[in-house]
Amino acid sequence: MTPQLSSVARTSIQRAGLSLIADKVVAGERLSMDEGVQLFHTPNLAAVGALANLVRERKHGDISWFNRNLHINATNVCEASCVFCSFARLEEGAPSAYTMSMEQAVGRIEALRDAFITEVHIVNGLHPGLPFSYYTDLLRAIKAARPDLHIKGFTAVEIHYYAHKYGMDYEGVIQALRQAGLDSMPGGGAEIFHERARKKLCPDKVDTQGWLEVHRTAHRLGMRTNCTMLFGSIERLEERVDHMVRLRELQDESLALQAQDPSRAAFQTFIPLKFHNENNRLARLSAPTGHDALRTIAVSRLMLDNIPHIKSYWVMLGQEIAQLSLSFGASDIDGTVREERIYHMAGAKTPQELTRSQLVTLIRAAGRIPVERDTLYNVVAEA
Ligand code: SF4
């Protein structure tokens, strides 16, 4: 049965002045930039959520995806100076700075030999002193230890940094990492594309054009990627919508090329990342509210009509908001996430890990059907 808006939701949408937008959503038409901004400004969150839920149920029914994964951040030494970052240390020897040896990194994989996981997620600081072979050796060592694991790794920020530092182009970096074992790319480092906010948040890492070009290149090479947006720091609501529209445009382009050549790829998932305000230079700001998080998830579901999945990353949002988000547009809550460091160093109070059965319980309690996936959204098991 095609999902419909309930009569209660219709009344709420009408009272919120969203009838024209609702007509477009029901007809499957694309929303404009101005309509995205209106969705952020309307006081009625429930009305926005009902529209996002309609789209979510059309795409995925009651299914809510999760996976079993491990995070490895091989080094937190980073020469960039993003003001929201609590993870990076400027140089080796600084308090809490670390760089894993191959043995340490692979030891983390080997420690899980008897645990079922399907993915390792690798993201690192921009270390000025490591050779490029550190990263290719890392990938080869992980693949040798666990050939069954899908390696999702290296943000566009890292790819851009390696290209400049080691004298390659984006294609050369991605191909070299792929030959060493990289399977897909995460979506980090997008932050906020709008130049006003980006200049303040992260003045010395890849710019917007570079971030988009890295993903364009990965898609051309047939590598699937994710995309993100950091919300709730200094950006304006209009800048959030602008960010979504720029992702939507690149996805249009990638999907059009993929239609001509199926070996190409595109974005799989959009992940709105909530700003955390501890241990960084934006500690004076309040952290975004649960209300803001739910609205951002809902608006992203409505604006990003060509990206299959919206993920609510429970590590950042908390389990309660992640659960609610499954009725506000999200269809994925990420995974067991063993050994997450980046957001816990920024004050995330969530556990270091959730078990499979905790994720299943969380999704079921939200009235959804949990389905375990691999990184590429193949079904591993219905729970
Ligand atoms: S966000 Fe990434 S690039 Fe920026 S300082 Fe932190 S680790 Fe470095």
**Structure summary, number of beta strands:** 10
Helix fraction, binned, reads: 40-55%
| The CATH architecture of the largest domain | Alpha-Beta Barrel
Radius of gyration: 20 Å
Shape: globular
Number of helices: 15
CATH topology heading of the largest domain: TIM Barrel
Multimerization state: single chain
**CA-CA gap between termini:** 23 Å
Helix/strand structural class: alpha/beta
Structure, described:
It is a single chain. The protein has 2 domains: 1-61, no CATH class; 64-382, Aldolase class I (TIM Barrel, Alpha-Beta Barrel), CATH 3.20.20. It has 15 helices and 10 strands. The chain has helices at residues 7-15, 19-26, 33-41, 45-60, 102-110, 132-145, 156-166, 170-180, 195-201, 208-220, 237-260, 290-303, 314-317, 319-325, 356-365; strands at residues 63-67, 69-72, 119-122, 150-153, 225-231, 267-274, 309-310, 332-335, 369-373, 379-382. The strands form 3 sheets. The chain has a 4-stranded mixed beta sheet with strand order 8-1-9-10, covered by helices on one side. With 383 residues, it is an alpha/beta fold. The longest helix has 24 residues, at 237-260. Residues 78, 80, 82, 85, 87-88, 125-126, 157, 202, 205 line the site of iron/sulfur cluster (SF4). The site of iron/sulfur cluster has 11 residues, from loops.
Describe what is shown at a glance.
The chain is of the alpha/beta class. It has 2 domains: 1-61, no CATH class; 64-382, TIM Barrel (Alpha-Beta Barrel). The protein has helices at residues 7-15, 19-26, 33-41, 45-60, 102-110, 132-145, 156-166, 170-180, 195-201, 208-220, 237-260, 290-303, 314-317, 319-325, 356-365; strands at 63-67, 69-72, 119-122, 150-153, 225-231, 267-274, 309-310, 332-335, 369-373, 379-382.
